Amino acid sequence: MKLPQMNPGMVKYLIALLLAAAVLGGCRRNSQVAAPRGTSAQSSVNLLEGAAPSFAIVKPGVEPAWQDDLVLSTNDFEELRAWAMPPEFAIKTRYLFLAGDTADFVALELNKSMAASAWFLNGRIVPTPLAGQQYASVPGIPLSLLRPLTNELTGIWTRDELQRFCYQRTKLPSERLKQALEVELRQKVALRGLACRDLALQSGPVVGFAGTNFLTIACRVNLPVGVTLAMDRRTFESPEGFFHRFKVEGLKPDTIYAYSLGATCAGRAAPLSEGPFRTRTLPAQGPLIFAALGDNRSYPETWGRVATAVAKQKPMFVIHTGDLVTQGLDDAQWDSQCLGPAADLLASIPTFVAAGNHEQNSQVYYQMFSVPAGATNWVQEVGPVLFIGLNDISTNSAAWLDGLLAASTAKFIFMVCHYPIVSSSERSPAVMRAAFLPVLTRHAVTAEIAGHDHFYERSELPEGLTVIVTGGAGAPLYTKKEKPDNQPVNPHSRSYLSDYHFCIFTVEGATCSLQALTLDGKVFDRRVWQERKRPALAR
Asked: Which residue in 70, 97, 71, 113 sits closest to 153, CA to CA?
């Protein structure tokens, strides 16, 4: 029989398959190998298309064997559920595939299960953009991890990750939980090749700290490339990476500036052009109008409505009391719960954030919401107002705050902290009242602006301090607690509302006024302060 004539490309393809078969012959099973994706790379090509996973259970004293399907015994499952497994226990998954033509690719992207944190490509760990973050999608994996022909991608679910998965679903019946775990372990994985044309602005831009003569802007892209910022007829460059931060100085007070973002990829201009966006520097004099809000996590749609309502008030900047996301170490939540729903607000109005407990000290917070370099807490003086952002609530911070306030001559001082000194939920850390209340009252601080409790409350303490809890920007709402004898847990409460809301402050001359508003613009609380009288401390 006359064989058909084969072109050189087909010959190379068959040789690759034969070599792969030889390499895989020594495996305990004949894993299916994904074929190359053709002679020209396509955008977002899945290199694992057609590859079937194999599984191996790692147990002490038992040699792991790769199997076509995951077989988790009832005994193993029950030990996992009871937290009785030895620390060496793990479940591995493996994909064998051929890379094909990767000439157009600049990086890879791994789409995987959140439950498995450790992945290896040809024995080398798959790097993540930020240490400690958990990724369902890992971007910007170096192409250098690929081999020309056969490749091996391996994922590992550690004992702790498996037990945590079970613990988070303890309400499920045993059989349903076992099925859920097996579904998670069999979850389809994709390894995609990305070209420069796939470059996109993933997060932001976010206008962070600002002043009368400077603005800071942050963004994130999905490939490790250089980004440029154009503003004020100047161009600023940021080196290759995922996160990019710019500080533009030498600006005029109370002036609107347009800015745009661009990028370079593989040494040339990339198809990323975002903008123009518009933002404004802070005023050097005249009335000062700012918004305050907090706890937008969990319900993105509500947070989007809050952000829209705030933007309509045209504040000069926004104070945020924290809890931007439900789990700060879950990377995807930063875009889905925080940055995406409020994109227009964050790209145009400077936003100062005090971190909450749900941020989990995530590096995304520090990358996207600019704070002064090297500072845990932050300080910003805007006209006659001093703002102090408290991220560290240790007694050391209380001593630092005491010294800072002693030197201040500001007419109004606001301490911004996620945790309130007092509220009607009884969830405030004891250190707030023990260590910080004496400092704030000693220096005649105007008010604490806090969150943490998902409602609005204004308390007037006998020591002279106002405590404002504004935790209604999107998180599930709380109700007011009472003691068993129906007495309030917070006798200093003067205004309370369990509803989504925000606050608008106006500083003019010797007065500062507060309006608390619902999302339809209804004012439900008001407060006016006169400028503080600096106490005579040297006595």
From this structure: 97
